Amino acid sequence: MLKNFLVFEKICGIIGHPLGHTMSPTLHNAMFQHMGLPFAYVALPTPPDKLIEVVAAVRALPVHGLSVTIPHKEPVISLCDEVSLRAQRIGAVNTLYWRDGGLHGENTDIIGFCAPLGELGRSIRSALVLGAGGVARAAIAGLQDMDVANVAVSNRDVTRAQGLADEFGCTAVMWDVRGEVDADIVINATPLGMKGEFERNSPYDASWFKSGMLAYDLVYNPQQTLFLRQAQAAGCTIVDGLAMFLGQAAEQFRLWTGREMDVEFGRSVCLRALRDF
């Protein structure tokens, strides 16, 4: 066992709380092995009150790179030596890596978010984003990069929704009237529907879906959430979160290793893992 451990020259991982739903260790470890790279990827459950301590440990070891997920994408910014212009614009960091001796913060979520929408080749004029966290920020920035003219954001905490709307120049909508928004695409950027305690929940009532709409769930585990099942039953085109997950992970992989991820292999790994969850 010790001999096998010693072949790992570089350690990567993920910080967040909770981490029971994450497929990142499964994907990245399979990819490192597939491509013959001496890396290992570990889950580092990090409650909010331990974030500063964990990042200090990352610097001391040092850990080669980290994925950052809920609820740390925004607060981790202040712990970086440098933050990319993309991450500054979004106001969230989902990736840490070393560059020129400093701990650099990046956001690869926007790349992963836009990729499947670009492949659809559909014109999107209006969008409703549900949620106001780090992934919602990436979604709004991505929609604006795609020249979506009307973007609305809704969150249970209206103050957070309004703050996000003011920051990005879009419209805040009260949570109670989100179903009244006329949108070409509705995006779930909340944890509702995620494997575990939220799995039986959806942020959008089934009766609000209309045939021809796009429904995009940024939750990837399970692949078919209640939100997506109800949207599909209503005649909507659905996009699951796996495409975004793979897109953002591929960019992380490139930043850490300098290599391009074998995305098709990664997809097969993820689909197999989802069946086993």
From TrEMBL:
Keywords: Amino-acid biosynthesis, Aromatic amino acid biosynthesis, NADP, Oxidoreductase. The active site is at residue 73. Residues 14-96 form the Shikimate dehydrogenase substrate binding N-terminal domain. Shikimate binds at residues 22-24, 69, 94, 109, 220, 248. GO terms for molecular function: NADP binding; shikimate 3-dehydrogenase (NADP+) activity. CDD domains: NAD_bind_Shikimate_DH. Residues 241-264 form the SDH C-terminal domain. Homodimer. This is Shikimate dehydrogenase (NADP(+)). GO terms for cellular component: cytosol. It comes from Alkalidesulfovibrio alkalitolerans DSM 16529. InterPro entries: Aminoacid_DH-like_N_sf (IPR046346), NAD(P)-bd_dom_sf (IPR036291), SDH_C (IPR041121), Shikimate_DH (IPR011342), Shikimate_DH-bd_N (IPR013708), Shikimate_DH_fam (IPR022893), Shikm_DH/Glu-tRNA_Rdtase (IPR006151). GO terms for biological process: amino acid biosynthetic process; aromatic amino acid family biosynthetic process; chorismate biosynthetic process; shikimate metabolic process. Signal peptide: none annotated. Residues 125-190 form the Quinate/shikimate 5-dehydrogenase/glutamyl-tRNA reductase domain.
